[in-house]
Amino acid sequence: MATQSERAVGMDDLPVRFQSLIQDHKQWLSCWPDRSTKWCQLLADAPEAALAEAWVCQQLKPKLHRIEPNDAPQTGGLDFKCVPSIDSNDFFFVEVTNLESGPLTNKSGLPARVEDWKGGGVCSIHNAFRRKRHEKQDQIRSHNIQGQVLIAITAFHETATFIHFDHGNAEQLLIPPDSRCFTYSKIGDPDFRPETWVEPSFQDALFFKPGTASNTYRAACPDLSGVLLCAIPWRDTITGKAEISLILNPTADSRFDPAWLPEIPCCQLQSDWEQVHPCQWTVEWMNVTHPVEQK
Questions:
Q1: Exposed, middle or buried by CB within 10 Å (0-12, 13-18, 19+), for 20?
Q2: What is the pLDDT of residues 199-251, one digit of tens each?
Q3: How far, in Å, CA of 84 to CA of 261, rounded?
Q4: Strand intervals (E) in the chain
Q5: Which residue in 85, 141, 163, 191 has the fewest CB atoms around it within 10 Å?
């Protein structure tokens, strides 16, 4: 039975709202009957998760030369294998993971509808991003994947996607929290310094974790090439447009080429990030044809 939070956000009728997507995905999966059976069962058991997979597939298909299911019904695996170009042998994998709307409302305190939001919920949703990255990192390692891997983190939750899936939030996930510079301006202060570093909290970073020594860091998930943030619109409101951002992992063992998805805005740390203090890290955007908007 659906929870009160799920009913409030309208999750009960998602299969009705996304009927066209369901039919298109079933048609695409008809070439792989065993995968089709597995996905239809997922749709019955966990509609949000199944629709998230279908939506990501639908978004990626026109941007690639070929996409095919990669998870075997018996042994599992990552969701999709993607071939970006007919002119090369390159490929990469995409694993979809969805932030379920009911638990997201309960844990973050974010209301279902954006017009009811009064502020707050930032830390909770960032924790959810990190938990999803950690869960999928273990899955990637268990399958011994060779090559570039992207995790697509999706959500139907209207308020969460409105305030946490934009370009500004993508930058916040890339640069560790609190790695900012503060300037003191008290005249006559004998301890005045033009700039004082505030050490970043690598405990809360998406791609980093604390090092063994104080104020140091190390790679948290080198098996992962990047994260796709996918806001899935489900009702006709001001938030009713799809938004996808690609965040590249600067510590990845296998680096992802943004040219493989040229229509998706992509951000990364500046090229010399390893040579400068984290407070001086900046974000570079690619594949953006208009100024990056931040809320």
A1: exposed
A2: 666 766 789 887 777 667 888 889 999 999 999 886 654 444 568 999 999 99
A3: 7
A4: 66-69, 80-83, 92-98, 148-155, 181-182, 196-197, 208-210, 217-219, 226-231, 243-248, 266-269, 283-286
A5: 191
